[in-house]
Amino acid sequence: MKPLLSCLLLAGTAGLFGCASAPSAPEVAASGKEWVTESDEPEAQRRARLRVELASGYFEKGQVTVALDEVKQALAADPSYAPAHNLRGLIYLRLKEPRLAEASFLQAIKLAPRDGDSWHNLGWMHCEAGKYADAVAAFGKALQTPQYAAASRTWMSQGICQARAGQPLEAERSLLRAFELDPANPIVSYNLASLLMQRGDYARAQFYIRRLNNSELANAESLWLGARVEHKLKQSETARQIGEQLRSRYPESQEAAAYERGAFDD
C-alpha cells in the first residue's frame, strides 16, 4: 500500500486523505506575503500585491484561468514581484504546464532567493515529475531559509516524496520531523502509520493511526488502515469495531468493500 498523498499541503483537513490521484501542487500554497510594510510599499508593488491576493482567492476556488489573468495583471504592474511568479508557477502546475511552472518558480527564486515557499513549490514540482534528488535538494533550500514558517509542510512533502522514491527510512525521518512540528496534521500521521505498517512495525503504526482515528479527521482510508493494523496485532475485537465504524460511516467506499471481503493482508 502506497503512502497517502495530499491534494494541498497547506490544508490539513479531513478531506485530504483521498487525494492521492489528484494533481497536487501540494499542498503547496502560493506565497502572497508582503515584502515590505504597507506604509513603505511602492505603488506598483501595492497594485501587484492586491492582484495576487485576488488571484490566490480565485486559485483556491478552482477558477484557474481567472487567477492566471489576475497574476498577469500583477506582473504588468510590477514584474519584479516574486509572489506573483510563485503563484503563476502553481497555476501552471494545475494547468499541467510543468516547463512554464518551473520557469515561474525559478524566476520567483531569482527575485527572492530567501523565499522558502518558492523553493518548496519547486521541490514538489520535481517530486511530481519523479525527479526525487532535485526535489529533496529544493526542499532542503526551503528548510534552510531563515525564519521559514512552513517547515512542517516541507518536511511532510519531503517525506512523501522520499516514500515515492522508495526510500522508506529517509521518508520516516522526514515525517517524524514533520510530526514533531505539527503533531495534529492528519496527513503526517497517516503516512507515518502506512510506512511503519509496510515494514511490519505494527505497534508504532498503531500509535499514529489511533491518534488520527480518535480525532474528527478520521476518514475511510485512515479507518481501514487502523483496522488492518489492529488485525496484524491480533486485536480482533478492536479491528472489528473500527471496521464496523468504517462500514457505517462510509458504506460505499472501496475501504468498506475491502473490509467486507476481509482483505486485511492485501
TrEMBL record:
Residues 244-266 are annotated as: Disordered. PROSITE patterns: PROKAR_LIPOPROTEIN (PS51257), TPR (PS50005). TPR repeats lie at residues 48-81, 82-115, 152-185. It comes from the Bacteria. Residues 1-22 form the signal peptide. Keywords: Repeat, Signal, TPR repeat. The keyword Signal applies. SMART domains: TPR (SM00028). This is Type IV pilus biogenesis/stability protein PilW. NCBIfam families: type_IV_pilW.
